[in-house]
Design brief:
single chain, 164 residues, mainly alpha, Arc Repressor Mutant, subunit A, 10% strand, elongated
Length: 164
């Protein structure tokens, strides 16, 4: 018999108090929520070790994933980070002030601009992603590789079904 966790105790209490309801979803989604809390803590620690906040990582990592020369239009950044235009302008301004990104005129559209990752920005985001991958591996360390793969597949199916 597997060891009980807090979710098992919560569901058992609800089953006792409300036997008319099916609490099966709580077995999965309450654990996902609790794991999300651990993941959020690990991400904050990885980002703060590199002196950045999560929103900074979002922008810098979008640029890094774009590949050399590590630049994107503000519209592409908006699509990848799901923030408003005004918010993105503010974020790019703040990152530029820190020397993590630069702006330049788009050579293919003289009216447009490109946001580019600087070498300092690349170093910061590379350090942050390395720390994040280590922290996430620690979270999953209790699962054998086959279980991790199966879990990833199941979560992918659910994510696709929900439209993410």
């Amino acid at each position: 018999m597997p060891q009980e966790d807090e979710v098992d105790r919560i569901v058992a209490a609800w089953d006792r108090e409300r036997p008319d309801l099916d609490f099966a979803p709580l077995h999965v989604l309450s654990r996902v929520g609790r794991l999300a809390h651990h993941l959020d803590r690990a991400r904050r620690a990885a980002f703060s070790a590199g002196g950045m906040e999560s929103w900074e990582f979002d922008v810098l990592s979008a640029l890094r994933r774009a590949g050399a020369p590590y630049e994107l239009s503000p519209k592409s950044l908006l699509q990848q980070t799901l923030v408003s235009s005004g918010t993105m302008t503010n974020r790019v301004d703040r990152l530029a002030a820190r020397g993590l990104v630069s702006r330049r005129t788009d050579p293919h559209d003289g009216r447009g601009i490109l946001v580019a990752l600087t070498s300092d920005g690349r170093g910061a985001v590379d350090a942050a992603i390395a720390g994040l991958v280590r922290a996430e591996a620690d979270i999953l360390a209790a699962l054998p590789e086959a279980d991790r793969s199966q879990l990833a597949g199941l979560l992918r199916t659910l994510s696709i079904e929900l439209g993410d």
